[in-house]
Each structure stands twice: as C-alpha cells, then as structure tokens.
Amino acid sequence: MKRELFLAILFGAILGFAVTGTVWLKKEGKLSLFKTSSEKQTETAEENVNEGTPSPAPAEEKETGKVFLEVSSPEQDSISDKEKITISGKTLENAIVVVVWEEGEDILVADGEGAFETEIVLVSGENQIDVTAYDDDGSSTAKTITVTYSTAKI
Amino acid sequence: MNTKKSIFLVFRLMIMILVLSLIFARKSAVEAENGATPTAKVTILNDDQKEEIESLREEVKKKVEEKLKTITDEKSEVGKRRSWIGIIKEKTAAGLTLLVRGETKQVKFDEGIKIVNSARKDIKIDDLKPGIKVIAMGYVQEDESLLAKRIVVAGNLEPRKTKVVFGKITDKSKSGQILVIADANEEGKDYETIIDDKTKILQVVAGKIKKAKYDDFKIGQSVVVVLTPVKGQENRFTAKNILILTED
Questions:
Q1: Would the pTM count as exceeding 0.90?
Q2: Is residue B169 part of a domain?
Q3: Same domain, yes or no, for A90 and A142?
Q4: N or C: which end of chain B has fewer CB within 10 A?
Q5: Interface of B with A in 35-74 (CB under 8 A)
Q6: Predicted ipTM?
Q7: A residues 1-40 lying closer than 8 A (beta carbon) to B
Q8: Could you give the number of structural domains in chain A?
C-alpha cells in the first residue's frame, strides 16, 4: 500500500511539474498554449506581412516626398502698419524655404521641427510674399501671402 | 484489491492535479491579457458630494465650451481687420463686388469711408468704376462682407521677374563667374547663371547656413537659386541668392 501511495505522489508531482512548467514557458513567451487576443492579432499581422498582404505604411514613410507648408504669420489679406514684418511658419524638418518679396529674397533652412522665420521689408500698399518649401529631392510647395502696408487709420 | 485501490488513487490524484493546473494556467493567461483585475468599489454619495460633483461637471463643461469658442473665433475672419485687393466687378450705392484671387467678394461702404487714388488724393465713390483695381481696407462682417473704411485705387504690380530654381550645377566656368544649373523639376531646362559681386553665396554646413564663395561651387552639387533675367539676354540670369545644398 505504501508503495502505491508513493507512486501516486510521484506521478502526481511529475504531472504537476509538467503543467506548471508549461504555464511558465507560456509566460516567458517560449510556448503558446493559451494565446491572448492581442498576441493572436500581432501574430495575424505578422503572418500578413510574411504572406505579402498589403498593410498600411507607417506615418513617417507616408510623409516622404510630400512637402507641407504652413505660413502662420502674416495672415492672408492682413494689414500691417509696420514696414518690417516677420514671416514665420512650419514645413518639413530641415526643408529649404525660399521667401521672395517685393524688394528682396531670402533662402532659409527650417529647423529640426520644421519651423522657419525671417524678417522682410514691405513696400507701401500691396505686397505679395512668395514662400516655397523644398525637400531633399526638389519637390516643392509654394504659397503666396498678400499683405497691405498702410499707416492710415482704419 | 489493494493494487486496484492504489491505481484508482494514483489516477484520481493525477486528474485533480491536472485540473487544478489547467485552471491556474488559464487564469494566468486571462490576467496577462487584461492586466490587473479591477476591484469593484461601491461608494454611496451623500447629497453634498453629489452637488459638488455636479458643480465640477458644470465647470468642466463651461471651460470646454469657452475653449471651443476661442478656437472657432481664432479661425473665423469675423471682426478681423483685412485688406481685399481686387478688380471692381460691379458697383452699387451700398458697395462693390470685387474679384479677389478669382473669388467674388462683397465690400460695403462704411459711413465715414475715405477713398483715395493712387496718388493718395481724395476721390468720390462715383470715381470708382468697374475694371479698376482697388485695395479695400476694413473689417470682416458676419455676412462675410467687408465693411470698408478706406479704399485705395491701386496700380497693377509688375509681374515678378525673379525665378526660384532647385537644380544641379552641370558646368562651371573657369574664366568668369558663370555656372550652368540644370532644373531638377524641368528636364532639359538649363540656366546660364552669372555670379556677380552682389550674389549672396551660401552653403549648408552641418544643417546651418554659412557664407561661401565662388570656389566652393563644384559640378554635381545641388543648389537652390533665386535668379533674375539679364536684360536683353533671354537665357542668361543673374543669381541674387544661391544656396549650395551638397555638404563636402
């Protein structure tokens, strides 16, 4: 009887170790016995990639080759009572920005966050300011801002 | 009998351990997916606490509405001081219809409107005729019209002669300061570019713009250049500003 009892405990312990070992391996990610739904999704996505199924490209890659340009100052159709104004805006990081105004031009390099800024001198009345941003390949986006320089009281 | 009893005992123990282990393993997997199991907490609030929560809720709602209004107002043109530059399309006693960048806009005359000609001499509303280019200055109204306080008859701007080119240096003169720049965006288009004493020569060095000189130009370099045509020479340009993009 003692021998049978000993065998029962021994087999039970072996079985127990086997099951707990399985759980441990699963937790360590070395065995997938009970997969969580997120793991299943990840695996499906990986499978899709392996099978060549088209998946959305990362956002950074989507931006490649496209030049966005925002001119935050001055506003379109604004009136300035000052002769010197600042042109500022945002584009791609390190993009080349060319600003051409009535009596001058400037070539700038946007900073690491894409911000750019330069000072220009206005002529009396209508002023057209052409801002063009270029990426490394020469792709560009241009904007024209119209500003009126007037010291008259409005 | 003893042997049968022992086998049965062993079998029963094995089943029990197996079942317990499977339950434990399944529970671990579910917890790993959901994170920590949330503990439900029931709090009974008294009237004062309920009122306090309600007042906080109202305050948050008010602040969100205020913020949204600020954002909308910032985007809106209403009330902003603007100048609309365009050609008079129509004129009535109350105002003008202007063609601004291809778009039709309504301008209303303010009671105290001042109208001047290009020499800044006072003129009358009657002097404004269709086809004349004007700068109407005033404030944008809720009906998207402009209440003009001042109208100036404007001359036409001269077409801009400057040209911005992104390209590559394909040739460099050794006798004079002349470069040939091939436009990267227009195949086959080359610009014979004169670099004179007034040309601002710049180069990108470690992400910053530094001053450069004619000797720094090399064939194959990418450049951005602002050009003006040379009078009487169709295909020759003078560089006003040139930036070398290729770093050595």
A1: no
A2: yes
A3: yes
A4: N
A5: none
A6: 0.71
A7: 1, 3-5, 7-9, 11-12, 15-16, 19-20, 22-23, 26-27, 33-38
A8: 2
